[in-house]
Write a structure and sequence with these properties.
The protein is an all-beta fold. It has one domain. It has strands at residues 3-6, 22-27, 37-44, 49-58, 65-70, 76-81. A six-stranded antiparallel beta sheet has the order 1-6-5-4-3-2, with no helix packed on it. β3 (37-44) and β4 (49-58) form a beta hairpin. It is globular, with a radius of gyration of 13 Å. It starts with a strand and ends with a strand.
């Protein structure tokens, strides 16, 4: 399923640090259902591949579906669903 990764940046609230950036995301059990829990596999630019716990969200104004995911170390990813 096609997803567009949105870059998350916390530099306005914290000191900027070098953190790996996501380059690919796979959500195998994605459903267009608000708060659907899903497993997300994320590949980072340093070659690291992580399994994360995700949640499906929908913008109530625009209707855009997204997946937000986080792992145990606090790394997080946001991806917008761009499928049909």
């Amino acid at each position: 399923m096609p997803f567009e990764i949105k870059q998350l940046s916390w530099h306005k609230r914290r000191r900027p640090t070098e953190v790996p950036q996501p380059v690919d995301i796979q959500v195998d059990d994605f459903r267009q259902e608000v708060n659907h829990a899903c497993e997300v596999t994320v590949t980072f630019d340093n070659g690291e591949v992580l399994q994360m716990h995700g949640r499906v969200i929908q913008n109530p104004i625009t209707g855009v579906w997204s997946v937000t995911a986080i792992n145990g170390t606090g790394q997080s990813v946001l991806a917008r669903y761009v499928g049909v």
